[in-house]
Amino acid sequence: MTLTLNDPIFLGSLKLRNRLIMAPLQQYKGTPEALPTGHHIKHYKRRAGHVGLVILESTAISSSGRLWKNDIGIFTEPHVEQLRKITEAIHEHHTPVFIQLSHGGRKSSPEVTHSLVAPSAIAFDEHYGTPESLSLAGIKNIIEEYRLAARRSIEAGFDGIEVHAAHGFLIHQFSSPLSNLRTDCYGGDSENRSRFLKEVLTTIRSEVGHDYPVMIRISATDYCQGGLTAEEWAKMLKPLESMLDAIHVSTGGLLPIKPSEVYAAYQLPYAAVIKQHLNIPIIAVGKIHTRSLANRIIEDQLADCIAIGSPFLENPDFAEGLLVN
Ligand SMILES: Cc1cc2nc3c(=O)[nH]c(=O)nc-3n(C[C@H](O)[C@H](O)[C@H](O)COP(=O)(O)O)c2cc1C
After folding, report:
1. pLDDT for position 324
2. Which helix (H) or strand (E) holds 237?
3. pLDDT of amino acid 325
4. For ligand 1, which residues put their CB under 6 angstroms from it?
5. Measuring CA to CA, which residue among 141, 80, 71, 74 is closest to residue 113?
C-alpha cells in the first residue's frame, strides 16, 4: 500500500488523522508579560481545521529564556489560563496541539533578558552580547524550569510537547561543538554535549509519563565546517530514542550564517539521514508546499510527516488545498 499525506499516523500513543502538520510560527504578539492574547486564539482556531497536528509557536519556559520581547511563555499560572483558551479553540476542530518549549540561552531577547546564559561564554553576535557560562547549579535550575513547563503544558490542555532543540537556542548551543567549549561532563564528545538534552528529556518524561507524546525539533546542520551534522545528531539521538515519539528536522540558526540556497524541500536530505538511523516518525519541513512533493516524500519513505510553515501566515486554508477530500 502506498502511503500519502492523507494517511493517519501515530506519534507515540496519539493518532493523527493525517500527516500534515502546522509548523511552529512565532506570532510576535505576546504581551510584555509573555501572555498570549485574543490574537493567538483567533489565529490558531482559524488554521486548525484540516491539519493532523498544530505545533504552537516557541513558548518560553522561563522569563529569562524568552526568544523575543513579544513571544509567549508558560512560566506562571496566568500563562496556563491563557494558553488553555488556545488549546480549547483548536480542540473544537478535533485537532491535537503540541506546545513548543524553548529557552533562548545566548539568543534570549536582550530587550527582556537581563543576564544571558549559555554553555560557554561565546556571543552569537554583537546584538545579543556575550552570555555567562552556566554553572552546574544554573543548569539544574533550567532543567527544573523544563519540569514545571511540562507540568503546565498538561494543565493547559496540550496533547504533547515539542522540545525546541533547533535554531541555535539553548539545547542546540549545548549540542554543537561550535557553541559548547565546556570541559566538564556537559562538554567534549557527543555523549557529553547531548547530556543537557538527555536530562531535559528525562525530566520531562518523569513529569508527563511514558504515554504522553514528546518530540524534538533539531537543526541538523550548522552550515559550517566543524558544526553539527545529521549523522552526529543521529548518533546523539539514538540512545534517547525511547524517550521520543518523533523528530522534526530543521536546520541552521546556531551561527549568523544562512544556507546558500533555499529551494523546494532543501532540508529533506537531512531528515532522510536521520530517518535511516532511527525508528520513530521523522517530520520534514522547509518549502514542501505542494501535494505532489509531500506525497512523494512520504511514498519514498524519506520522512513520515510534512510540516508546513509560512504558507499558513498568508492563507489560513492552505491545508485544505493540500489534502485530498
Ligand atoms: C514568521 C515565522 C515564525 C517562525 N517561528 C518559529 C518558531 O516559533 N519555532 C520554530 O521552531 N520555527 C519557527 N519558524 C520556522 C518554521 O516553523 C518553518 O520551519 C519554516 O518556516 C520553514 O517552513 P516553510 O518553508 O513551510 O515556511 C518560523 C518561521 C517563520 C517564517
Report:
1. 75
2. helix 230-237
3. 62
4. 23-26, 57-58, 100, 164, 166-167, 217, 250, 285-287, 308-310
5. 71
Whole-number Å distance between alpha carbons of 302 and 283: 9
Spacing, Cα 320 to ligand 1 middle (Å): 20
Domains recognised in the chain with CATH numbers = 29-278 (3.20.20.70)
CB 1 within 8 A of CB 285: no
- Other C-beta atoms lying within 10 Å of the C-beta of residue 297: 22
Residue 140: how many CB atoms within 10 A of its CB? 12
Average confidence (pLDDT) per 10 residues, the chain, 325 residues: 94 98 98 98 97 98 98 98 98 98 98 94 97 98 98 98 98 98 98 98 98 98 97 98 98 95 96 98 98 97 98 96 81
Question: Residue 210: what pLDDT?
Answer: 97
CA of 253 to the centre of ligand 1 (A): 12
For 31-95, give the DSSP string: -TT----HHHHHHHHHH-SS-SEEEEEEEESSTTS-SSTT-EE-SSHHHHHHHHHHHHHHHTTT-
Main-chain phi, psi angles of 240, to 5 degrees: -100, 0
CA of 274 to the centre of ligand 1 (A): 20
Give the integer Cα–Cα distance in Å for 222 and 178: 9
